[in-house]
């Protein structure tokens, strides 16, 4: 930018492009690259070959060449490639001493350069300068002991020279630096090439402790096995298992150990190894172990052995599940089914005790439902499988003490305990248990179970007392009243049963009064007390005018074989028709009239049938407006309504509509339009 005299900066002008049209000749990047490539092919001719004919000319050539190398080195001493080229040129002239001097000068510049040491030592070896080469390798491994290439080259040189002791000495020096695994394997292979088994074993002993990987222990054992030292191989595996202990167990070691024993035909040892490992290694880390164990049992075991493998695998899975969530009772149930199928009572006891120890943390019945079944299954196992009644009793009692009965209870548990005591012929304990349950937390199921027990024992006086207590606890339960009355009926005490029914229908609140009345009526019919039955129907009709009651009343009268039954039924129909005129449910009234019509068709005359026919309603279609929940208009709905003639006589508006309809029909008949669609009347015109 330029600045003016006032100190303000002035922006230079930019030349405007006058012609923005594309050039006629377009050059692409591809063309440029192709041309550059083509020009590379234009190679210069090689320099002419120089021939040296005498010693003076040779010395002159050497002087020039050395000066060139020295100049390059002087320009940049750190470029090691210049030193190497210089030394290799001197080596090509058989000037070994000069080349050696150049390498030494280069090492003074960069003694940590790996390539420089390698080239230097290779030069000495090619020229059979063995001691010089040893000297260089010693210096190299002393200065750079972590460069494995030096060690490999040094040991290889000694081995090629047949100096086994020297090579071993180099390896020993190398192993003191604890190199990687491949170096140890090289040392072991070196000893094996000269049949030094004992020395190789000593190397392995150091190796497995410096690199304590499972694969190295396995290699050590296979080395012993390969050389037919079976006892040594077994000891190596055993030492490996002890070395890792139970905290760092690995399935690969046990799999290899088991396969080794399998090769030796020691099948019992194999089975013990697999079971020992499966009992101690976590499920997610033992997949390969399970697989190999299953294959082994399929090859050499029986059906029981294969089942044991599967059981062990599933046991590990369930253990992991219950450890992750101890209150997952479904997992406990699956686990218990597994151990019960295994048939070991001690393990079943242990798992049951662990399961019931996980009490639900919240005192709500929905959280306890699954948990209680653990106790029930435990008690059933002790009674049916273990055959230990005393232990079963302890399980039931411990469970009943654990449940917070003030908040909720489980009638099923009380009943199971009582039934167990009955099976043990301890009626007093069974009654005491049920009595305690009713006293602490009365429930319908408890009462029913206790009553059923006493009925089976034919203790009817106890049943009466229990029914009385039950009705004091739940007087609105119609089923209880009915069962109590049925008991008295079976015992032949009809008056007591009738008194129970009378007490029942006199209760202010009942859950199913219609069932109770029906049972009472059926009871009187069975006793052939027809007059009492009629009185019951009349009393019931004073409480309800339901159409089914009227129809049932008529059917009862028809069932009584007396001469005046038809007039009695007709009178009931007449009374029902009068009482149902105010009924809002028109469909029920229609059902009643249809029943009356069927009765007259079977037992009546033409006049009586015609009378009922006149009472039948007319079915009309109407529309009504619908409203949504928010009060907005939701459209219209069509429905059917029934207009009874007796109701129409009291509604003059309906007569007026009927006359209007008749007038319109007459008007249409006068016009007599054959194809006029207005000829048909719409039923919707009956709407007001």
Automatic annotation (TrEMBL):
<dbReference type="Pfam" id="PF23231">
    <property type="entry name" value="HAT_Syf1_CNRKL1_C"/>
</dbReference>
<keyword id="KW-0677">Repeat</keyword>
<dbReference type="InterPro" id="IPR003107">
    <property type="entry name" value="HAT"/>
</dbReference>
<dbReference type="InterPro" id="IPR055433">
    <property type="entry name" value="HAT_Syf1-like_N"/>
</dbReference>
<keyword id="KW-0507">mRNA processing</keyword>
<dbReference type="GO" id="GO:0016607">
    <property type="term" value="C:nuclear speck"/>
</dbReference>
<keyword id="KW-0539">Nucleus</keyword>
<dbReference type="GO" id="GO:0071011">
    <property type="term" value="C:precatalytic spliceosome"/>
</dbReference>
<comment type="similarity">
    <text>Belongs to the crooked-neck family.</text>
</comment>
<comment type="function">
    <text>Involved in pre-mRNA splicing and cell cycle progression. Required for the spliceosome assembly and initiation of the DNA replication.</text>
</comment>
<feature type="domain" description="Pre-mRNA-splicing factor Syf1-like N-terminal HAT-repeats">
    <location>
        <begin position="68"/>
        <end position="213"/>
    </location>
</feature>
<dbReference type="Pfam" id="PF23233">
    <property type="entry name" value="HAT_Syf1_CNRKL1_N"/>
</dbReference>
<dbReference type="GO" id="GO:0000245">
    <property type="term" value="P:spliceosomal complex assembly"/>
</dbReference>
<dbReference type="GO" id="GO:0000974">
    <property type="term" value="C:Prp19 complex"/>
</dbReference>
<dbReference type="InterPro" id="IPR011990">
    <property type="entry name" value="TPR-like_helical_dom_sf"/>
</dbReference>
<feature type="region of interest" description="Disordered">
    <location>
        <begin position="668"/>
        <end position="688"/>
    </location>
</feature>
<dbReference type="GO" id="GO:0071007">
    <property type="term" value="C:U2-type catalytic step 2 spliceosome"/>
</dbReference>
<keyword id="KW-0747">Spliceosome</keyword>
<keyword id="KW-0508">mRNA splicing</keyword>
<dbReference type="InterPro" id="IPR045075">
    <property type="entry name" value="Syf1-like"/>
</dbReference>
<dbReference type="InterPro" id="IPR055430">
    <property type="entry name" value="HAT_Syf1_CNRKL1_C"/>
</dbReference>
<dbReference type="GO" id="GO:0071014">
    <property type="term" value="C:post-mRNA release spliceosomal complex"/>
</dbReference>
<feature type="compositionally biased region" description="Acidic residues">
    <location>
        <begin position="671"/>
        <end position="688"/>
    </location>
</feature>
<comment type="function">
    <text>Involved in pre-mRNA splicing process. As a component of the minor spliceosome, involved in the splicing of U12-type introns in pre-mRNAs.</text>
</comment>
<keyword id="KW-0597">Phosphoprotein</keyword>
<feature type="domain" description="Pre-mRNA-splicing factor Syf1/CRNKL1-like C-terminal HAT-repeats">
    <location>
        <begin position="334"/>
        <end position="538"/>
    </location>
</feature>
<protein>
    <recommendedName>
        <fullName>Crooked neck-like protein 1</fullName>
    </recommendedName>
</protein>
